Amino acid sequence: MRWDRLAIVGGLVLEVPDGWTAVARSGAVELRRVGSTITLRPVDALAADPAGEHAAGAVVDPDTLLVEDAPDRLVVVGSTGTVRDVRYAEVGSSAVRITSWGPVDEWPAVVQVVEGVLRSRWSTPSGHRSAADLERDRGIGHGAGAAGARAAAPGRDRAAGLLTVRGPKGLFEHLVQVEDRGVVPGRLRRSEVGTAARAAGLTGRFGALTAAGAALLRPAHGPDDLLVVECRTRDVVTRRWRAWLRDGDALVVEDGDGGSAMGVLPDGQLVRELLAWLDVDPTWAVAGAEPVSVPLARLDDREGPCPSNVRWMQAAWRVRDWQTVRGWGERRQYGVLSIVVPGIGVFDREVDGDRLTMRPSSPAELARDVVRFLTAERRDQP
Fold first, then answer.
1. What confidence tens digit (pLDDT) does each residue in 26-79 have?
2. Contact between 111 and 368 (Cβ < 8 Å)
């Protein structure tokens, strides 16, 4: 401990982390390093107004994506690839509002700094409200579901994808199939995907690729990496997200809900695009609740009574379509694996023999997994 590196914020005494500089502001302390800031300010209570804060931010950036919206937590991803993370933490008999801001790829590391501050020996934080409080606020076990949760998430509908080409499933595969052809058989040109490709200006009169179609596929040729995320319901793939990364750009293909969307984006926009596609409601969180272990054999149909007396699992057991989110890359060292129960929450999973353990997580935790997944270093090539 270095006594010349201490800062005091209300009832919280903290040691300024290595690599950060502390600056005193009116009623607050600001921790800075290149690109990121963390502002700590004492407040009278833990009560937050995430909806109001998000609405105010959306005036400046209408394409912001609301990632988490809990009574003591707000996480927003901006259209320019920045993150604003607001949390309220109890410190003794007082409270502190902690706001971090910076590039999305640095967000997981910044969160570790904030959590290190809250674990400081000079404070006694209870960082989150109890699981029972959060469940009661959201009405778990009292008829709350996906519709109610989504209504509480302002701005979510504005987080539509940035992809410009839309059509039926299989549109990308059709473009690949006709890429090297000068003339395409009539049955392919007149098919649903062939007609959609022509309407989008990606193929010409005889079915061959136009210059726009060739430009769209360019990142898929000799890519630096291919990333895939799948959502499975009862072990059937219902949605798939793919991104071919090359020279700072990415061809993104999103399949699901009866259609397909495609476009080339700067790789700095991938985090926001993938989070928007995952479409996890920011109110789906039961952070702080205990994990539950259940038999693997009962997960797909979940017929009969719930095998657990834990409240959140009993509520989740009644939801029909759980989603297992799996992500991997051809060269990435980090993947994504979570269970999303619509209207209830996000859960980490661990399989041990014939049993599955589900640990309550949060939309922000899933978002940080996405950031790590999209920014992980590639393995060294042979």
1. 888 899 998 899 998 888 766 555 556 655 666 567 778 888 888 788 899 988
2. yes
- DSSP assignment of 164-182, as one string? -EEEETTHHHHHHHHTT-S
Strands 323-329 and 292-295: unpaired
Tokens of 94: 């007082």
Residues in the chain: 382
The torsion angles phi and psi of 37, rounded to 5 degrees, stand at -135, 150
Alpha-carbon dihedral sign for residues 49, 55, 58, 59: negative
Q: Would you give the end-to-end CA distance of the chain in angstroms?
A: 44
Q: Give residue-wise pLDDT tens across range 63-119.
A: 788 888 887 888 999 888 899 999 888 776 678 889 999 999 999 999 988 888 777
Q: What are 349's strand-pairing partners?
A: 358
Q: What share of the chain is helix, strand, coil (3-state, %, to 5)?
A: 30, 35, 35
